[in-house]
Amino acid sequence: MITLLLLFYVIDKRLVEINFKLIINLSLTYIIVWGVSHVFESMRAFNQEEIINLALRDSLTQAYNRRAFKSHFHNHIDFSNPYCFALADLDFFKKVNDKYGHDAGDATARSL
């Protein structure tokens, strides 16, 4: 590119000025596009982490859901060693919602 500019400089000084302005314009455009793409890639990485968190946790209680359990169980359990896990179930929880309302039921679920 520099050789080409020197050649044009020998031929016509005005043409060099035009090419210099073009190079500056293209350089600034490249810097702006790189900056914008960097910002969007950073936002994409953050949003991807948030989406994974939303997919693996219950939105009300923030407890891990069945999908998270299956993933963890499949990836981390060594079947040659003994293991244990526990599940909990709230019996008649619908009665709490019916009697005190869904807001009270949500508060109860979060407190457990």
From TrEMBL:
CC annotations in GO: plasma membrane
Protein name per the record: diguanylate cyclase
InterPro entries, per the entry: Diguanylate_Cyclase, GGDEF_dom, Nucleotide_cyclase, Rev_trsase/Diguanyl_cyclase
Pfam families: GGDEF
GO molecular function: diguanylate cyclase activity
Entry annotated with the keyword Membrane: yes
Known catalytic reactions: 2 GTP = 3',3'-c-di-GMP + 2 diphosphate
Database matches in SUPFAM superfamilies: Nucleotide cyclase
Keyword Coiled coil: no
Positions of transmembrane segments: 20-40
GO annotation, biological process: cell adhesion involved in single-species biofilm formation; negative regulation of bacterial-type flagellum-dependent cell motility
PANTHER family for this protein: DIGUANYLATE CYCLASE DGCM-RELATED (PTHR45138:SF9), REGULATORY COMPONENTS OF SENSORY TRANSDUCTION SYSTEM (PTHR45138)
GGDEF domain span: 81-112
Enzyme Commission number(s) of this protein: 2.7.7.65
Keywords on record: Membrane, Transmembrane, Transmembrane helix
First-tier enzyme category under EC: transferase
